[in-house]
Amino acid sequence: PLPAEHADAAVPPRLTSSGGAASKPVEPAKTESLDLRQFSPLLADERFSAARTLVENDESEAAARAVLAVAATESDPVFVARAHFAAARLFERAGRPALALDAYQRAAATSWPLEGDAWVRAADLLVALGRAPEALDALGRAPGLADETRTRLVRARALAAQEKWSEADDQLAAVLARDGAAEHRLLRAGFSRDAAARASGEERQRAADRGFEEATRAVSGLPKTHDIALRGARLQAELRKLGASPPGAPTLEERLAHLSGLVDRNALEEAEEFRKTIVFDARDFSDARCRYDASVAKLLSLERKWGEAADQLVGDGGERAAVG
Contact at 8 Å (CB) between 114 and 85? Predict the structure, then answer.
């Protein structure tokens, strides 16, 4: 049976948090396919015969528990750490992130060659579980021998979970300088999409354009049916809705002028649809927002929606009207 300290009834022990903005759970990083060869030296030990059979039968969670049961009877710290690391990988494969996190933290408690990797993998799971500040703490504990690319990717995800977009982008830029993998470009495009969704005006435009450019680079040369190409196309569509202007596409100024022209020509249905593609934050008081409000108010007036037209001009408690 699984030792009592590994019971899944409670969330694993938390690392001491460094504080910071609350984070939200994010989509976990894709778990690598489990290569059984990496466990061969460990599972070849006769003590793990039961676990080996379970792994071969694709019973990952049961195999992990069998590995931990053996570890609980041993005293050599490196042997125990290796066992916890193997169990953590198996728990991940079984879709049990809380148990995997606990096992990685225990594997990282001993000085051995994969100590740094254990901390980084624990940090990745902490991000996925919505505990980004603790993830940054874990990364700070990872010895310098931990894989730099993996460390930066996890740190980027932890920072993005706290909406520290600029810092997250710096981490990904460093990764891309060494490894321009399409998967990394998609991750950067996704961060830009999230940053754009929380920004407004020119800041939204810049983030959306940056994300669209990365998504375009990610899918370049790939067949349209390729998984990355499909994901990239979805990202591009989302970024367009957020105002991304691909090369040759109209700028925000040109789009505002087009909206005004549609209203002036009394093309009301087309103007109604087009205005939905221009998005501002509710408290954006920029000149571009004021011109947008004026065009939309005129459109609503032509549609005899007098109350909505007035609301469009007044904005939040009259603040936009006062600024304009």
Answer: yes
